[in-house]
Design a protein that fits this description.
By secondary structure, the chain is an alpha+beta fold. It folds into four domains: about 70 residues; about 100 residues, Immunoglobulin-like; about 80 residues, Immunoglobulin-like (Sandwich), CATH 2.60.40; about 80 residues, no CATH class. The protein has eight helices and 19 strands. The strands form four sheets. Strands 1, 3, 4, 5, 8, 9 and 10 form a seven-stranded mixed sheet that branches. The N terminus and C terminus are likely disordered.
């Protein structure tokens, strides 16, 4: 990183000098041989050059400082329970000691792990015990089963000298699976879906389009949904952070607006109508068709009304068969026979 700053300074200086040469050439050509004017312009150009070089020096120093401070920092985002590893750019032997330090968000600094040729590995802080290892050849530190408290900045000392590199670690919880809530409005064709979480929220519909949510005063967002009369249309809410992503179960328009209840009512009406038509057809068959009438009367003779056959047939199933049956014709009243005769024409 240190070798980059002289390169930047040289490149910027060459660019600035080239710019000055072009400006000077333009001035010389436009002076039309006026030597006095040319000398004056040269002085102005020299003063401008000195000013540019001064600005260049300080700006280059600032750029180098930014590269040193920020360019040497690498960051990692991890979920709770995951593993992270940090390795220095280079490690030059011989190495007699390595110390990895952790600076928390509160500013406290502790040793995550240390090693030296005499005592070997040592993990003095209980936060890192049993989960931290060190590769002595590469200087790499590995931490498993991460928790939120492992977040912070990590630095490495090699042979008791702190290295320039900084490693930032952010450990966060995985997002939960979201659940949407439905809120009705005074308009029966408009409803609101709410997703009450602090994480990034992504709304989508069944067409895959991303919808714009509106922030709540409470954590989360909501969207307004209009009834499209398609009960299969649905909406989802996705929670996302740097380490995880979870999507809710889809909520359909049938659930939001109750579109499915109308369909169920229609099916019920159709079934009832079919049953009524079937009953009417059976009754008409008994009244009109002689063969049906005779078949029913053979089983249940002397029926006084048209509803008698149904009652008779139901009771027949509960009776035990008799060895001998009386003559049905003798048991039928004369008036009944006459009714039958008149009904069927003899």
């Amino acid at each position: 990183m240190g070798s980059l700053c002289p390169f930047l300074l040289l490149s910027m200086s060459q660019t600035l000098l080239l710019s000055f040469d072009l400006d000077f050439l333009y001035t010389a050509l436009s002076s039309n041989g006026d030597s006095g004017c040319l000398k004056y312009r040269r002085k102005v150009q020299k003063a401008a050059l000195r000013m540019k070089m001064l600005l260049l020096r300080y700006s280059t120093a600032f750029i180098c400082a930014v590269f040193i401070i920020t360019g040497a920092v690498s960051g990692e985002d991890k979920a709770v329970g995951q593993t992270v590893s940090f390795r220095p750019d280079k490690i030059v032997p011989p190495v007699s000691s390595i110390i990895w330090k952790h600076r928390s968000s509160t500013g406290s600094v502790v040793k995550a792990i240390e090693w030296d040729v005499d005592d070997g590995d040592n993990i003095p802080n209980p936060r890192f015990k049993g989960i931290t290892t060190l590769d002595r050849k590469t200087g790499q530190i590995t931490i498993t089963n991460l928790i939120i408290e492992h977040s912070g900045v990590y630095t490495i000392d090699i042979n008791s000298k702190e290295q320039e590199q900084r490693f930032t670690l952010t450990v966060m919880e995985r997002v939960p699976k979201p659940k949407m809530t439905i809120e009705v409005s005074s308009n029966p064709d408009v409803a609101y879906l709410r997703c009450a979480y602090n994480e990034m929220i992504i709304w989508k519909n069944s067409s895959g389009e991303t919808l714009n949510g509106t922030k709540n005063h409470d954590p989360g967002e909501y969207i307004m949904v209009k009834n499209t009369r398609n009960p299969e249309n649905f909406y989802t809410c996705t929670l996302k952070n740097a380490v995880s992503e979870e999507i809710s179960d889809p909520v359909t328009e049938r659930e939001i607006f109750g579109t499915g209840s109308n369909a169920g009512m229609i099916v019920a009406i159709v079934i009832v109508v079919f049953i009524v038509i079937a009953v009417i057809a059976i009754v008409l068959s008994y009244l009109i068709m002689k063969t049906v009438h005779e078949s029913v009367n053979n089983i249940c003779p002397c029926i006084p009304n048209i509803f008698g056959p149904l009652d008779c047939l139901l009771k027949k199933t509960d009776r035990e068969p008799k060895n001998s049956a009386p003559n049905d014709e003798n048991n039928c009243s004369t008036s009944t026979k006459q009714q039958h005769f008149l009904h069927y024409g003899g």
